[in-house]
Amino acid sequence: MLGGVNNQLFFMSLAGFPVVLFLIFILKWATTPGRSLIARKPVAGNEDDYGMLVAVASPPNHIEGEMLRQKLIAVGIKATLTQTKDGPRIYVFPEEESAAKAHLRSFT
User: Fold this and answer.
1) Closest to 47 in 3D by CA, of 76, 9, 10, 90
2) CA distance readout (Å), 31 to 36, 65, 75, 102
3) Closest among 58, 62, 72, 60 to 104, alpha carbons compared
4) Are 69 and 90 in contact (CB under 8 A)?
5) Residue 68 and residue 75: Cα distance in Å, rounded?
6) What is the pLDDT along the chain (108 residues), one digit of tens a residue?
7) Nearest CA-CA partner of 88 in 101, 96, 79, 98
8) In CATH, which of 3.40.50, 2.60.40, 3.30.70, 1.20.120 is domain 54-105?
């Protein structure tokens, strides 16, 4: 009791402030650009926007592209299938380019 008055209601009203501050900090952290836990929508790029990866095949659709990618993975070649603005492409690292092209030619 402060000053002879029951201050229980006063202290109960202050109890909500830490909870609100905690929620503000959580929401601010979760929505900070670049640190969000929510995945961004993928954007299709040009064929040359994929760094040092080299395009080795351009399948007509995503299903055939995945089949070709699985064939490359089966022989130990790391391959990536992605959707570009020009359609699906299979990318590999430059040191595996000739082996990937030779292996893909053997299937066609």
Assistant:
1) 90
2) 6, 36, 42, 47
3) 72
4) yes
5) 11
6) 556 667 777 777 788 888 899 999 988 887 777 766 677 787 888 888 888 999 999 999 999 999 999 999 999 999 999 999 989 999 999 999 999 999 998 875
7) 79
8) 3.30.70
Task: Provide the residue type at 22 as one letter.
Answer: F
Predicted TM-score (pTM) of this structure? 0.62
Helix (H) or strand (E) holding 103: helix 97-105
Q: Where are the domains of the chain?
A: 54-105
The residue type at 48: D
Measured between alpha carbons, how far is residue 71 from residues 24, 44, 90, 94, 100 in Å? 50, 24, 12, 18, 10
Q: Which two tokens stand for residue 62?
A: 């995503």
